[in-house]
Amino acid sequence: MRNLFKNTGYKLYLKQQSGSKRISFSYIPNQDGSVRWFWNSGSKKPLFLKFYNITTIKGKLFAFVVRMIFFLRLQRLLFKKETLYYTSEENPLFDIMNDWAIFTGTQGPNNKAVLFADNCFFKIASTKNAKNLINKEYKIITYSGINTFYSAPSAYLINDCVLKLSDISNNGKRQKKFSEVHAKALHGIKEKHQTMIKISNWKHFDTLIENFSTIDDNRIPPNLTRKLKIILENIDKDEMIHLSFSHGDFTPWNCFVKDDILGIYDWELASFEKPKGFDFFHFIIQNGILVQHIPWKEILVQIRKHNKIAFNFDDNDLKKYLKFYLLTNVLYYLKLYSEQEQWHLQVHWLLKVWSEALNMYLTEIKTKRELLIMDIFDYLYHEKYATLKFHDKEPENLPLNSDIDIVISCNDASKMALFLKQNSLVNRMKIVKKSFMYKIRLITHDLQILNLDLIYQLKWKSLEYMETNGMINHAEMNRYGVKISSPQDTAKYIYYFYTLNNSEIPDAYKNFVYENTSEKMRKSKTECITMMKRKRSNRGFLFLKNLCCYFKDFFSEKGFIITFSGVDGVGKSTVISEVSELIEKRYRRPVKVLRHRPSLLPILSVFTKGKEKAHQDIVNSLPRQGKNDHFFSSLLRFTYYYTDYIIGQFIIYLKYVLRGKIVLYDRYYFDFIADSKRSNIKLPEGITENGYHLLLKPKFNFFLYADPEKILDRKKELSYHSICDLTASYGRLFSKLEKKDPKIKYLSIENNDLDTTLSTIMNTITAAK
User: Fold this and answer.
1) If you average pLDDT over every residue of the chain, what do you get?
2) Which of 499, 523, 553 is the last residue of a domain?
3) What angle do CA 206, 211, 212 make, to 5 degrees?
4) Among 196, 207, 199, 113, which residue's Cα sits nearest to residue 161?
5) Is residue 171 part of a domain?
6) How many other CB atoms are there within 10 angstroms of residue 520's CB atom?
7) Helix or strand run (H / E) with residue 194
8) What is d(CA 21, CA 84) in angstroms, rounded to the nearest whole number?
């Protein structure tokens, strides 16, 4: 502050000096406690609002409250104050005892304070970089001049530290939304200078890349740096690019709309070497991040919408020039931030959105799942957490069927869930909030699955066996910026996990566990439970609370039912086995396979042959060999099995679905409709079909079919004509049911290639909402 006033013709003192005068400053601080705006406490006008972006509802409310405070003369009572002493030179820049206000600026190598006094702005440089910038701004304003579509302030360079600018904001309004006024101004700016060059001849870009290569700042998330390097390595240097004159910091807070003319301040970052559209992209993106606080996917929607009135880029050019905007802007500011001792909160906001924005230029090199993993660990880079059993490679190289277990605080888990929900790579997200963790399933736009467990309590049933705070504090960051649970904590976790669940520690972990745990710690399951019960977190009221939460967690996520239909020999068993394994690995859900029906009631032959003989006969007999042709006996058989479905469906729902299991039916009720002979029943199709209306509908129903020749190669249980008739019957039924209820999936799949069939089934399950 002393240096600031020295450049304006005043000297400040904490204590009274000979010839000094007393003055009181009022001020409003930043979130970190540093001074943001200050002014003469005797001022009658809130001139510091000249620096405030009054475009949002929050901003307008703040400005209204401030004006009311000054109107009621309450400012001396409500704002923080500091008393200082000053002496002045012969011709100071302004009258310190009059109305004025100062904005201290953004900390960093480009820091400049801005003084508003006597209806003028004064930029006051406090660093060497800042001096260069105000000199540059003076020259640029002189060059840019007045245009039909925009105006710039008149400028006067008082000395190498102070630039005087006229106030062009009077009777003007800031607008947070991009409009035709802004679009016309951008065309006016662009017309000052345009050129087409090869990227290999673009000196400004080369300088940015060279400066980027010198950055050594471990505060920058490593995956953002890696993304930039990958994109830069894949740029075609022979490609032509359109460069134009640009303002460089074209934002709502630097613009005022007055009489359909845009008044523009802060020309210090103007350049002749920025890619076409730079100012347009900058306005939308900076406003979206710093003012609207919206995620990248919403910012991109705004870019595409306003592009129609700005430059009207086609899709290819929009993507191209947005890429070079991002590269030039991000490379410039990363270098700037690396030289900045302390980062303000907005830096983290910007880095997060920039990193996500770069993903659209990496989808041919990385999958969306891989990019999402990179985003996750960049988001967590400055947070406290510990991953469990995570590999020591690039984080995105996580195997397709592997999940990510993260020990993190409950509050941070909640914030992370919001971040994931807003990420543009996420097509759908399923959150299951349990008493001790967030269980999150993410599905990308290319239908890949990523499972995360955000754990804030390490529990077995209702008992806590390890404290998460200690594990988080002991975490160690690896070379890829991922915080890994310490070897001792990991070994302890693995030992408890497998011991308490009555499982052998896998061979891959045995040596690791024994090397990193003491013999005293390695106890039997019974001893572990006794030890856990002594912990304070597992006693008294907390025990009761944990027990209630444990039972509640049982029903935190429902399962669903999948049915598979088709003639014998079509390959259902193989498909069901593979799907069961994929669901357990990718969905991380337990699977229960049932054959044909709930089987609450035994097969009818059990009553005449006994259980073992009846089942043996079923195994040894060929399908569709029953001789029952009587309507009455068929109706009795059907009623018996239908009763099994009616009652059994609720048992299955309570026993499996409600507790989160996925039930796979190898054949289902559809056999009674399309192939009732298989159950030794002969009834009109309308009777069995109407019975389906009273059943709970399975979420996914797959009918598998194949060429009769292929089926007969596998099994010769059915005749050629029977296969054709049954395939047609099932096909008609599934088509009919699909039209009746589009919310339930009835899909017919030709099972010629197993991988294709599995891919179709899993994509159908994954894509369903």
Assistant:
1) 89
2) 553
3) 95
4) 113
5) no
6) 6
7) strand 194-198
8) 8
Q: What is the pLDDT of residues 589-625, one digit of tens each?
A: 899 999 888 988 766 555 555 556 545 545 445 555 5
Say yes or no: 700 and 587 in one domain: yes
For the chain, give the percent of residues with pLDDT over 90.
51
Number of domains, the chain:
4
Beta-carbon contacts of 325 under 8 Å, excluding residues fewer than 6 positions away, are 275, 277, 278, 281, 282
Listed range (188-197, 401-410, 504-513, 716-725) with the worst mean pLDDT: 716-725
Tokens of 80: 């923080």
Mean of the pLDDT values across residues 224-250? Answer: 95
- Beta pairing class for 21-29 and 80-88: antiparallel
For residues 741 and 733, what is the distance between their CA atoms, to the nearest angstrom? 12
Pairing state of beta strands 155-159 and 150-151? unpaired
In a domain, 174, yes or no: no
Residues 6+ apart with CB under 8 A from 630: 682
Query: Minimal CA–CA distance to 769: which of 702, 703, 699, 664?
Result: 699
CA separation for the pair 94, 39 (Å, rounded): 13
**Cα-based distances in Å from 177 to 61, 256, 296:** 18, 12, 17
Give the distance, in angstroms, between the CA of residue 485 and the centroid of all CA atoms in the same chain. Answer: 23
- Give the CA radius of gyration of the chain: 35
Tokens of 77: 């009572």
What would the DSSP string read from start to end of 508-577?
Answer: HHHHHHHHHS-TTT---HHHHHHHHHHSGGGSHHHHHHHHHHHHHHTTSS--EEEEEE--TTSSHHHHHH
Of the CA atoms within 13 Å of residue 397, those in its CB half-sphere come to 6
Residues 421 and 355 in one domain: no
> What is the predicted pLDDT for the residue at 383?
94
pLDDT digits (tens, 9 = 90+) for 278-291: 999 999 999 999 99
Distance CA 468, CA 484 (A): 13
Contact 174, 252 (CB under 8 A): yes
Residue 217 and residue 318 share a domain: yes
Instruction: Please compute the mean of the pLDDT values over residues 40-60 and round it to a whole number.
Output: 85
What the block records as the tokens of 510 is 């045995």
Question: Residue 25 belongs to what domain range?
Answer: 2-166
Q: Give this prediction's pTM.
A: 0.82
Q: At what angle do helices 345-357 and 315-338 cross, to 10 degrees?
A: 150
- Give 556's contacts (C-beta < 8 A, 6+ positions apart): 432, 433, 434, 439, 660
Measured in whole angstroms, the distance separating CA 427 from the mean position of its chain's CA atoms is 10
| Most distant CA atoms of the chain, gap in Å | 121
Are 695 and 645 within 8 A, CB to CB?
yes
Cα(427)–Cα(445) distance, integer angstroms:
5
Q: Find out whether 426 and 443 touch, Cβ atoms under 8 Å.
A: yes
Note the Cα 664 to chain centre separation in Å. Answer: 32
> Cα–Cα distance between 344 and 587 in angstroms, integer?
40
- The domain that holds 639 is classified in CATH as 3.40.50.300
Question: What's the CA gap between 359 and 224, in Å, rounded?
Answer: 10
Contact yes or no for 591/580 (Cβ under 8 A): yes
Within-domain flag for 741: yes
Q: Does 461 map to a domain?
A: yes
Is residue 99 within 8 A of residue 47, CB to CB? The reply is: yes
